[in-house]
Amino acid sequence: MAFADMDVDTIWMDGDFVDWEDAQVHVLTHALHYGTGVFEGVRCYDTEKGPAIFRWEEHLDRLYDSGKPYNLEIDHTREELTEATLELIRRQDLESCYIRPLVYFGYNSLGVSPKECPTKTMIACWPWGAYLGDDALENGVDVMVSSWRKHASSQIPTNAKATGPYINSLLAGEEARSNGYMEAIVLNKEGNVAEGPGENIFLVKDGTLHTPGLAQSILDGITRKTVIELAEERGYEVNDEAVISRSELYTADELFFTGTAAEVTPIKTVDDNEIGEGTRGPITEELQSAFFDLVERRTDDHDEWFTYVDEQ
Ligand SMILES: Cc1ncc(COP(=O)(O)O)c(C=O)c1O
Question: Residues 264-273: pLDDT tens digits?
Fold first, then answer.
C-alpha cells in the first residue's frame, strides 16, 4: 500500500526504515492529544545534478530550534537525520519530493505535561507538485482576509513550527476555501498583516518590497529569507520589518506568497479587489523566475544552499 496512490513505500522511524503500512503510532500518543510535535516541510528538486534538497541545513536549524520552547529534545543528530532522508529519497527513486520530518512526544502518560513521554522522530518523503496548483503559480490566487487572527508569540511561539498551532492555519484556510477563495491572509492580534496559513507574504509598492517582520507573529520562513536575498541581489530595496495594515493590501501594486509548499505564488485578488492589474505582477514574475532558476539549478548561484542526494 502506498500513500494517495503514490509509488512511495518507506518511512523512517527512529532509526529504522519501516514499510508504509507498519508506520503506526498508539492512539494514546501524547502528540495526538495535545499537538506536541515539531516538524519541517522541505523540498527536494529535480536538477541536472540529480535530486537536490533545498536549504536542508536551515530546515534542520529550525527543527531543532522549534523544540526548544517545548523542551522537546531531538535525540538524533543532524547527521542521522540527513543520512536517513538521503537514503529515503534514494531507496524510493524520487527525483523530486516533499520531505516531512516530525518529532513528537510519544506514548506513556496523558497528563498535559509530556515529561514522562519518549521523544519520537519520523521522516517521510513523497512527490508533491505545486501546493496551490500549477495555474496559481502563473495566474495567481484569489484570497480573503480571514476572520481568524494569528495567535501572538506571547500566546504560542510563532517562530517554532509546532504541530498543534496549525489548527489556527486550518481554520483560516478552510474558511477561505468554503467561501470560494484559494487561500487566506491572516492578521495578527493587533490587526496588521501577519502571513498566510502556510506562507509568508510580500507586498510590492512603488518598486520596494515589504514583508512583515518576526515581531508580527510570523513563522521565520526559509523561502522568505531566500526571496529577500534574491531581491536584494537584483537591486531591490526590501523592508523585512514591515508593519502592513489591512488597507495597504488593497492598494498594493503586487502581492505574493512565499513558502516551501507554495514556493512563490502571486496573489491576484484580496476580498475580490484586484491587486495591480489582477495578474502576476512584473516584480513577482522576476523573483519567481529567479527562484525557480535557483531551485532547479539553472544557475550556479548559491550552490551552498543545496544538498545533493547523489554523490557529486
Ligand atoms: C505559518 C507559515 N508561515 C510561513 C511558512 C513558510 O515557511 P518556509 O518558507 O520556511 O516553508 C510556512 C511553511 O512552513 C508556514 O506554515
Answer: 999 999 999 9
Q: Which amino acid is at 229?
A: E
Neighbours of 126 (CB within 10 A): 19
Quickly list DSSP for 26-55: -TTBHHHHH--EEE--EEEEEETTEEEEET
161 catalytically annotated: yes
Please name every residue paired with 256 in a beta bridge, in sequence order, or none if there are none.
202, 266
**Ligand 1 pocket, mutate which of 217, 219, 220, 287 (most atoms under 8 A from CB):** 219
Burial class of residue 167, CB neighbours in 10 A (0-12, 13-18, 19+): exposed
Q: Which domains does the chain possess? A: 3-126 (3.30.470.10), 134-295 (3.20.10.10)
Query: Which pLDDT tens digit goes with each residue over 97-155?
Result: 999 999 999 999 999 999 999 999 999 999 988 778 889 999 999 999 999 999 999 99
Which of 161, 205, 225, 268 is catalytic? The answer is 161
What is the C-alpha to C-alpha distance for residues 236 and 230, in angstroms, rounded to an integer? 9
Atom from ligand 1 closest to the CA of residue 261: 11
